[in-house]
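During the reporting period the student researcher (J.K.) took over the structure-prediction task from the postdoctoral fellow and processed the backlog of single-chain submissions. One of the processed entries is reproduced below for the supervisory committee.
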Amino acid sequence: MSSISGETPEIDLDALTRKYEEERAKRLRAEGLGQYREAKGEFARFAQDPNSDPDFARDPVRRDANVLIIGGGFGGLLAAAHVRREGVEDIVIVDRAGDFGGTWYWNRYPGVRCDVEAYVYVPLLEETGFVPSEKYAKGAEIQHQCRLIGEHFDLYRGALFRTSIETLDWDEARQRWIVRTDRGDEIAAKFIVSATGHYSSLKLPGIPGIEQFAGPSFHTSRWDYRVTGGDADGELTGLAGKRVGVIGTGSTGIQCVPPLAEWAEQLYVFQRTPCSIDVRGNRPTDVEWFTSQSPGWWQERVENFTNWTSGIQKGEDLIADSWTNLLGEPTAVAGGVVGEVDPAEMLRAELLKMEKVRQRVDTIVEDKAAAEALKPWYHYFCKRPGFSDDYLQTFNRPNVTLVDTGGQGVERITASGVVVGGTEYPVDVLVFATGFEFMTSYTREAGFAITGRNGLSLDEHWSHGAHTLWGMQTRGFPNFFLMSLLQSGVSINYMHIADAQTRYIASVIGHCLREHVATVGPTAEAEDAWVERIVSLSGARKAFLQACTPGYFNQEGQPQPEFELNIPFGGGPHEYLDLVRAAREGGFVDVLEFTQPARTGE
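J.K. obtained the following structure tokens:
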């Protein structure tokens, strides 16, 4: 018997490994990603925007543009801000939402807030002067900052909201992208930045009978306050006397369950796999401290957070929360990608951390059966860790019932309830906290078709796996930049990566416009070398995810061959950030190829 000991009682590694394998096996389903449904066809209503005027109309736009950015979330806003700093005035931002905000526009469910410290997650704080009211700011505040960025950088001037891209087609003769939308727009853009977000395409569970439910039902990213009453701060008076069911217990579920429990007469929480729940420790912002920071403080704090969550524990921990102390000593980055730490030490710390998480459940949840069901039996980072100071406590309320499905999921949905293990639980309102598609087909998640040179679609180009340079450019699709996690650097604080990527993108665009460059794209050698680097570093992560309980990180435990290369860079965030910065500062030598426009008459 192998064992490990430390601050917690001794852990039997062999027994724990068997337990993890047993729990994983319970949840494996042959259909893999096929167990979910898109919000299309008969389910299209789940994707409708409850926050904007359904009768909105405008005249089609026909124009040229220097830069067209798809997406008005933080990725698109950062890209626009940095492009604007390059002196570019002609910027068009297209978003299907009714305003800037991205995920913070769509996700307005009760209890929504960031789970990475707002002072490092929310960008451009120094530029707008916005002060988050709490360490983990509420969603409405974060969307407010998005609007402030739009105003500060004069981005509303070129914004087309409530508009969906339908096609992007490269016109070789004009050396422009022809962008067509559902509003009849046709825009010829010199450069495209696709910043559609990582959690933009909601998914519904493929539970038999889901279409038969007679009461109100909605996805958390389209919260219907006409049904619940109140707002993201609570006061859900519409649920008085109502029986409510929530399907999904990930990072969204753990935030919306407590306010639902406060107002519903009866709340049923349907759980397939428990989330790991650590202390959040939220607190009000010390405004005097915040406003006394020296210029450049945001970047310094962001880098400090990335260091401490990547195994580089030097200097003071400026953030000092459950993220930076994830595994005590040492730490590791998300997704099983190890930073500058010894793998054996990382495993030891991770196992001890999970044991502490499980022990915390026992100290909070009074019902022993519920406590056992709420314990996560998998490796840390198999799923996105959760942080809450009131989720576990909710199961001590008399009006809350945890319906654990034993890893099998909900059996079926009827007109008036949810069936698990042959028992029907009657509900009046049904909430789907079932998340989003993640790192599958880029065009499917984005929602539009992309056709590059010689009529080649991006789906065809990537039919055997994605090929990019740094996850941002791909050959055959000139002047096209994408922001995605696939083949990109990863950090617990995505905003650090997004800021570096958008600085790079803006630098390339600025260079091309100043030097009158017609097209730009990665060299074959640079792209091939990057893909080879991605593959060479993928072994550890693949092995880690293979042992994980099913979830969106490992494509529900049934990875598909066509998505095999849709993986992040495995060398840690610092190597990625250094590479991108060096290319930008070095003038893109040996990584990009530029073409000059043909002269008139040639």
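The committee noted the following: The longest helix spans residues 343-364.
J.K. will present the remaining backlog at the next meeting.
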